[in-house]
User: Which sequence fits this backbone?
């Protein structure tokens, strides 16, 4: 039960950093909210590959590796977009730093969720 509490606290802290990067009167630019799409899209390829692939084979397969590749592309894009916004003077560098801190916390929370609930036991997220 404490694990779920820690994961939800991590998600709230990450979203707080994202909102601070957008809504502080010094920055006042809401373009970083496009990162919410990356937060939603990041776990989808891995979830689909877990449903399609049978885990009885210990060897790596192409579907799982494609899912990891797509997830990595989404995560790298989520870190690159704020830097591009800051370089194009769409948002300030301070807002970029807050958004990048939020990215670190959010993606660490997503990773923690899959590490804790990713196994195929009775306490798995796949039964939900």
Assistant:
């Amino acid at each position: 039960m404490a694990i779920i509490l820690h994961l939800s606290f991590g998600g709230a802290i990450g979203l707080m950093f994202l909102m601070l990067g957008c809504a502080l009167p010094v920055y006042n630019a809401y373009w970083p909210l496009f990162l919410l799409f990356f937060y939603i899209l990041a776990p989808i390829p891995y979830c689909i590959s877990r449903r399609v692939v049978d885990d009885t084979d210990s060897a790596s397969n192409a579907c799982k590796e494609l899912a990891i590749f797509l997830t990595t592309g989404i995560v790298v894009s989520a870190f690159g977009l704020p830097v591009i916004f800051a370089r194009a003077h769409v948002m300030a560098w301070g807002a970029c730093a807050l958004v990048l801190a939020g990215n670190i916390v959010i993606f660490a929370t997503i990773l923690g969720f899959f590490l804790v609930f990713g196994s195929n036991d009775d306490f798995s997220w796949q039964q939900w």
Summary: The chain has one domain: 2-121. Helices lie at 2-23, 35-41, 44-52, 62-87, 93-117. The first helix runs from residue 2 to 23. The radius of gyration is 17 Å.
